[in-house]
Amino acid sequence: MVKKILVIIGLCLLGGYLIFAAFFFERKPQDKICNQFEIVVNNEDTDRFIEIADLEKDIDAKGLNPYGKQLKEVNTLAIQEALLANKLIKSAEVFITSGGGIRAVIIERIPILRVIPSAGESYYIDKDGEKMPLSSHNTAYLPIATGEIKDELAKTDLYKFALFLCKDEFWNAQIEQIVVQPKDEVTLITRIGNQEVLMGKLDNVESKLDRLKKFYTQALPATGWNRYTKINLKYDKQVVGTKR
Predict the structure, then answer these.
(1) How far apart are CA 211 and CA 98, in angstroms?
(2) Which of 41, 168, 185, 222 has its CA 20 to 30 A from that of 71?
(3) Measuring CA to CA, how many Å separate 31 from each of 68, 71, 218, 235?
(4) Which stretches of 68-223 are assigned E, i.e. beta strand?
(5) What is the pLDDT along the chain (244 residues), one digit of tens a residue?
């Protein structure tokens, strides 16, 4: 009987301690003063389009710098939203560290195509197919799309074409410029060879470029790279060259 009573008392004491510990250790960090504010850029790519100093200035300007404040007064959600207002940032996580600081971990958006429309400002299309502003700190060396480019075309056909180029080392190195003509027809400017490549619409891209690659490897070595002014891939299963 005494043993049972001791067991019950022990369990009650243990339960009380656990409740106290949970409350104490949960609340105690919140009473601390923030001793550090750190922004970390966790890049998937080596290029960086954001300067941490600029982000810190922006947080300061909005009165959100947590340094020196009690942790319980720090609005981590507001800091996160302020960071995400920068359109170069894909995601941001803001949290309290075990050392009593605030850390913001951000991931930058990755551009895959630069768009220079005949009307309007230049921008990038990122890996998710969204418009991304240019950076004042860095320029990405990517294929360039120029001409009569509407947002819808940039986010659909041009985006899909840019994704294809990202995955194909040969064509990513070879295609320098994508010129959008009226009716959304496309002409390619390549790094090797002094001719325009007429793609037509950006459909059946892989098939068209396979034909062009065969033309490069089988026909041009015999005729010379400068024999043609235009190479037309619009017609199914054909490559039509226009001689100089």
Answers:
(1) 59
(2) 41
(3) 12, 6, 74, 72
(4) 89-96, 102-108, 111-117, 123-126, 131-132, 144-147, 175-180, 186-190, 196-200
(5) 555 554 455 545 545 554 554 544 444 455 789 999 999 998 766 678 889 999 999 999 999 999 999 998 999 999 999 999 999 999 999 999 988 999 999 999 999 999 999 988 999 999 999 999 998 888 888 999 999 999 999 999 999 999 999 999 999 999 999 999 988 899 999 888 778 999 999 999 999 999 999 888 887 777 766 777 888 998 887 888 777 7
Distance of CA 196 to the CA centre of its chain: 30
Q: Tokens 């024999």 label which residue?
A: 227
Inter-residue contact 123 to 115 (CB < 8 Å): yes
Q: Are 241 and 194 within 8 A, CB to CB?
A: no
How many CB atoms are located within 10 Å of the residue 212 CB?
Answer: 19
Which structural domains are found in the chain, ordered by start? Answer: 33-108 (3.10.20.310), 111-243 (3.40.50.11690)
DSSP characters for 119-146?
Answer: SS--EEEETTS-EE---SS------EEE
Q: Are 124 and 111 in contact (CB under 8 A)?
A: yes
2: left (phi over 0), alpha (psi -120 to 50) or beta: alpha
Structure tokens at 127: 């890996």
